[in-house]
TrEMBL record:
Keywords: Hydrolase. GO terms for molecular function: hydrolase activity. This is Benzoate degradation ring-cleavage hydrolase. Residues 39-254 form the AB hydrolase-1 domain. InterPro entries: AB_hydrolase, AB_hydrolase_1, AB_hydrolase_fold. Pfam families: Abhydrolase_6.
Amino acid sequence: MDQLVSPSFAELPAKNGRNSLRIEYQWLNANWTDAPIAVFLHEGLGSVAMWKDWPQALCNRLGFRGLVYSRPGYGASTPREAGTEWPVDFLHAQALDVLPALLDVLDIGHAERARMWVIGHSDGGSIALLYAAAFPDALAGVIAIAPHVFVEAMSVEMIGQARVQYTQGDLRSRLARYHADVDSAFYGWNGIWLSPAFRDWNITRLLSSIRCPLLAAQAEDDEYATMAQIDAIALHAPQAMLAKLPAGGHSPHRQCSDSLDATIEEFVTGKAVSRH
């Protein structure tokens, strides 16, 4: 999945003032029709292609079907209009509007959603937590990898450095293979995270609404955030299991996938057994 080859598309109808959207998506293990679904939510610069092979490998390990998709503004999905800035609640909109609308269009019903796992990385981890808080009875569990639940100074600093790498280095050319409109993807993410209005973004008060099993994983050497992120999750959602990895940077599913995958398998298997 490291190239945009023959994607499928879902058309989301206009709703609540937003325009209709064209969403790039891909099913994994599509013929495993009786298996639970894992929905993968990518990072702030991610897409279907940028996940590469990790979702497939994890689904094979867990015996899951998988659904990966590119959010609006990313991959081959509807791009962000030039000059448009994401609002402060842009992650909420993805959790409360876009993801449920996509599940509706793909005809994923209530019974399937009740068995569904939502797996998110970075911004996608935040969306996974927001979805679990808003729909506490509509999923089997959530796995948040290096999620953000409030804004830390080091995150802003690193995202500022990313802009320099994008405008003066090779980051733009490296990202261009994963996005049909690379400026849409980069400046949407970079702009909102560097906006002064976003400094006070904080979703910790919503986490107590999460009732499903929850695994939050983060590496000690994460360059974008500290362990305060997942510690806050445990404080507000006491059922959460924390996986504090000694190394793995901001993308442990890439840098230490064996360790992370084993942790996820143990967690999912244990929770699935305990809920029967």
